[in-house]
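dumping this here before i forget
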Amino acid sequence: MAAFCVRCVGNSKLTNYMQLKQVRILHNEVLAQSPTALSPLYPPILPSLTAKSKAAKQRRRDEYYKKVYAAPSVQEKIRLLTCLQRLKYVVNTQTSAINADRWYQHFTKTAYLSGLPEHFTNSGMDQVAETGDIVTSKALSDPDFEELKSLFCTALLQENFYMRKRTPFLYRTIEHYFSPFLNNAVSALTTLLAAQNPLLKESSLDFKPQVNFYWMRGERVVPRGHRKGSVDPIRFQIDDHPHSQIRVPKQLPEFVPLDYKVPAEVPVIKLEPDRLPLFKRQYDNHIFIGTKVTDPCVYGHTQFHLISDRMHRGRLTKANLEDQIEVRLRANAISSLFAWTGAQAMYQGFWSHEDVTRPFVSQCVITDGKYYSFFCYQLNTLALCVETDCNNPRKNICWGTESMPLYDTVEENDVKGFNDDTLKLLVQFLLYRPKAL
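structure:
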């Protein structure tokens, strides 16, 4: 009996063990069928925010990007993107460096195309005039054009003949004579052409505005100091002061589609920007189009730049630098238009990690009072940092013309050799408008 009882007890224990095992197996099957029903018992292990490891740096970078993505307003997003101060290269729009246009193309990822877009060519004007997409100078009647021509001649004589002016200071000749002329000419043109282009009626005309843009392009290894060996992005800042600019409440139409394959290549410069030369400074980073974000006119139309006496073609010719005349004009146009157009895109909430979904277009005219150069710019990408530029096929595009004279000379009370083609092209620039208008 004792042996029987021991056997019975042993069988009961074995039975209980098998039942528990079966229940455990069934429990595992339930877990395998619904893993989403479980929640982790402990939070994930994350790298420290204050350590010096690569994982910690990556976490700090990810946390920073999350803040920028979640910014409640454009003002807050721009503040987050510009709050960190480091040494940065200050890009001068009017530079005396040799072959600066290729460097500026590399800094801004801009492809340069000689000539103007099809909208401003003879064939393009005929085609567009039929569809009614934009208004060209052909919309002006002969009396209207003669009135504009007379206005320009009068403005020239006002500063060069009618008024008695003292001898200008050194390197102030262009500013002394042609800055007032350009003031009067731009004001009169926008007023007279407002009847042909309703967009100019709602525009805002700024004189001596401030335009700033801050961005990162490429990376470098810190050569010395307590951060020696660290990999830093190369930072750039443009502080531009055009003579005047026209801002409009509606965006100008694109010249080419956003993903247009540009036939020209962007020059690749593997040297440090110090070799151009560019110099580093550390001060507040600024992104500014000439007005605050809340202004209704936050899109650019046309800028006017008056070159300095140091870049005058007469001085460059005496210094045997005739080949640098057009080079420096191109560099001025690329840097100024990239800064202005890029700031407009950032006013719409785009940045390097949230690239533009539509092109941004601006125009500019660069002059010394006598010779005029015309440029068009289309911003297709802001993804210029190393992280976002690796698989980015887009390029920014700049179109430009050679210098065109407006007149030959001013003799007594007569303007000799007035060039109608230059004035017509200027009128076409100001009459460019969206299709909706």
